[in-house]
Design goal:
Number of strands: 24
Largest sheet: 7 strands, mixed
Radius of gyration: 36 Å
Distance between the termini: 86 Å
Strand content: 5-15%
């Protein structure tokens, strides 16, 4: 006690116990008279026993700071700052050694995590402390609690590397996709067009059967495509195939949608029915989300601390959102949004898994997280139904462009499908057995003849002939049922095609797969350049919404087109033409933005003056008095001429913008 009190008390003992007693006392007491009461490292009260004064210790504060709850308070401060930093900055954690307690929480709060495969566990409590708590030697290493086999498969760790060299290479590669500062332009690399031309066709073409979605995204070698195991995610195989093709020019390469060698997958070990990562299209970085089309196995390990627990494996079908994959999708969207990346979603989901287990595991909650994340997205979002893909029911709902119309657009390949239910499902509801019977008797001449024969025989009293005709009709109906069912399925499928989607205005266009790469490249460049200018408009006039800025920009474009003699309702939809207009009209657009800024400032000053004219005048006078003498005289002169605000200097719009450089003439 004397040591804990900082050495200020000369002796300590148990209050209420004699020197020879072996029983416990009522507390700890410090001798030293008034010194103990005044000690800043302890709090105590006076007790008199048998004529002896003792200072009983109530609290030990300690001489040194950082021993207990104040340490936890500091950890809480760090945790809060890290959480806010994820929203305000780019955060990335490379776990190269053991991270324990608040260190583990900081890893997760920073969201993006790269973990070294060995000797770098992410822990709340070490295995030895847990063994003491349990009272048995249950765990043998920290790897069982927080190694990659745990953290890579539960979504905490995004990537796993073998050593620090590969770890820093992964960090640099991740940084290559991200703007150098918040609000800066994307790290656009037009030089990649010479390596992988934008206008090439896409070699990998889905055929309707299950396939590795990474081949569609990143391409593959023939050997990797032929040897892919349909029962596994094959992330490492796809990456190895890409690397091998890049190093061996003789390898037979089948190209994918994005630039060759630009794909980097994240969270590959978790929720494998969805694949997420980052790639480049013509040098422009994007976030990518695509559905797994094959059945995968989800394994939950047994807990050594619970002897009754067992490892469980659940088969998860492709093209379906499960609770974990829905959460993974929402988390990826939030990460991409924080990195200010455009987003490309290859929409190929038949719906959400709504069984009892999945409903209990909160699939409804995590599916709604997807909508929440998309409503906050600020960069262009493209939703594309790939060839032989389908988007149905609730899966369509959570990625529909009306969630965030300012930034989202939906497209489909001609072979893509979209609807409430699959054709077989809708036909089973709308075209039942009685409907098949009615259609057969209405459309098949043989059925009509048999029905007529049965009626005629019954009218003449020949029941045997009537029964025979009815039996033949039933047999023919049995043979025709399959044909009419196929017809109903085909008829239902006609309602799910892109032609109807466009007619109903739910998609913007049908884009053939072989030309999807150049189409979306120019659309992306146009949207990024347009968004940059719309952002400058809203910054100049904060009273305008992002959508209103878009309408204003279009009116400027239409007025320019009209003045040049160009007419037509489709000019605004021609991406290359609009990009060229943005490049050619830099000075004009800058002048209009500057004028908009002046008008906005004038409106705000007028509003303030209307609210309190005296305060507004005082503010204007204070501003004039703070100006240098020459500027003050110029302002006073302008005020005398009743001109309150002049043009504001600004940088030229689009100067050095790579998105507006090197445009071919439309």
């Amino acid at each position: 006690s004397g040591a804990a009190a900082g050495g200020e008390s000369r002796a300590a003992g148990a209050s209420g116990a004699s020197s020879g007693s072996t029983s416990g006392g009522d507390g700890l007491a410090a001798s030293g008279g008034a010194t103990g009461r005044r000690a800043p490292s302890v709090r105590c009260h006076l007790v008199v026993e048998d004529g002896e004064e003792r200072w009983v210790l109530d609290d030990v504060i300690g001489k040194d700071d950082g021993l207990g709850v104040e340490n936890l308070r500091g950890s809480g401060l760090i945790a809060g700052e890290t959480s806010r930093s994820y929203r305000d900055n780019f955060t990335l954690t490379y776990v190269t050694g053991r991270s324990v307690g608040i260190g583990a929480y900081l890893v997760r709060l920073g969201q993006r995590t790269i973990q070294k495969r060995t000797a770098a566990p992410i822990l709340l409590t070490g295995y030895q402390a847990l063994n003491k708590l349990i009272g048995a030697e249950v765990y043998t290493s920290n790897e069982q609690l927080g190694g990659p086999k745990i953290m890579y498969h539960n979504g905490v760790t995004h990537q796993v590397v073998e050593d620090d060299l590969h770890g820093m290479a992964a960090v640099l590669r991740w940084l290559s996709y991200v703007p150098r500062s918040k609000g800066a332009s994307l790290p656009f690399s037009p030089g990649t067009a010479s390596i992988d031309p934008v206008d090439r066709t896409i070699g990998f073409v889905p055929r309707g059967e299950p396939y590795d979605p990474r081949h569609l995204i990143a391409g593959t070698t023939d050997s990797a495509a032929d040897g892919a195991d349909a029962g596994t995610a094959a992330s490492s195989a796809a990456a190895a195939g890409t690397a091998a093709a890049a190093s061996d020019p003789e390898a037979s390469w089948t190209s994918g949608f994005f630039d060759r060698g630009s794909w980097t997958e994240a969270l590959a070990g978790w929720a494998r029915t969805v694949v997420v990562g980052r790639a480049r299209l013509g040098g422009i970085p994007l976030g990518v989300i695509i559905a797994e089309t094959r059945t995968v196995a989800a394994t939950r390990p047994a807990d050594p601390a619970t002897p009754q627990s067992m490892e469980t494996t659940v088969q998860q079908a492709g093209q379906v959102w499960f609770p974990d994959s829905a959460y993974k999708t929402a988390q990826a969207i939030r990460d991409f949004a924080a990195e200010e990346l455009p987003l490309f979603i290859f929409a190929n989901w038949r719906g959400f898994s709504g069984g009892q287990r999945d409903m209990f595991d909160e699939v409804l909650k995590f599916g709604s997280y997807i909508v929440d994340a998309l409503t906050e997205y600020k960069q262009p979002v493209f939703v594309y139904i790939p060839p032989f893909g389908e988007l149905r029911g609730g899966a369509w709902v959570v990625v529909d462009p009306t969630i965030n119309e300012d930034v989202m657009e939906m497209y489909a390949a001609p072979e893509g499908r979209g609807g409430v239910l699959e054709p077989a499902g809708i036909a089973s509801i709308k075209f039942k057995a009685r409907d098949i019977r009615e259609a057969a008797f209405r459309l098949d001449p043989a059925m009509q003849a048999l029905a007529h024969a049965a009626r005629a025989a019954r009218a003449s009293g020949d029941e045997a002939a009537a029964a025979k005709a009815e039996a033949e009709a039933e047999e023919r109906l049995r043979r025709l049922s399959g044909v009419f069912t196929q017809i109903s399925h085909h008829f239902a499928d006609l309602h799910d095609r892109p032609g109807r989607m466009m007619a109903k205005g739910v998609i913007r266009n049908a884009v053939p797969w072989e030309r999807a790469r150049p189409f979306f490249y120019w659309r992306l460049r146009r949207r990024l350049a347009e968004f940059a200018l719309r952002g400058r408009i809203t910054a100049a006039a904060p009273q305008l919404s992002f959508a209103a800025a878009g309408h204003l920009l279009r009116s400027w474009h239409d007025s320019t087109a009209t003045s040049r003699g160009s007419t037509g309702t489709g000019l605004w939809d021609q991406d290359l033409r609009v990009l060229q207009w943005l490049a050619d009209s830099r000075d004009t657009l800058e002048a209009r933005v500057a004028a908009l800024r002046r008008d906005s400032i004038a409106d705000r000053v007028l509003e303030l003056g209307t609210t309190d004219s005296g305060a507004a005048i005082d503010g204007i006078l204070a501003l004039i008095n703070r100006l240098p003498v020459d500027q003050r005289e110029a302002v006073v002169g302008r005020l005398r001429r009743e001109v309150l605000f002049g043009p504001m200097p600004g940088s030229a719009f689009g100067g050095g913008d790579p998105l507006l450089a090197g445009l071919p003439r439309p």
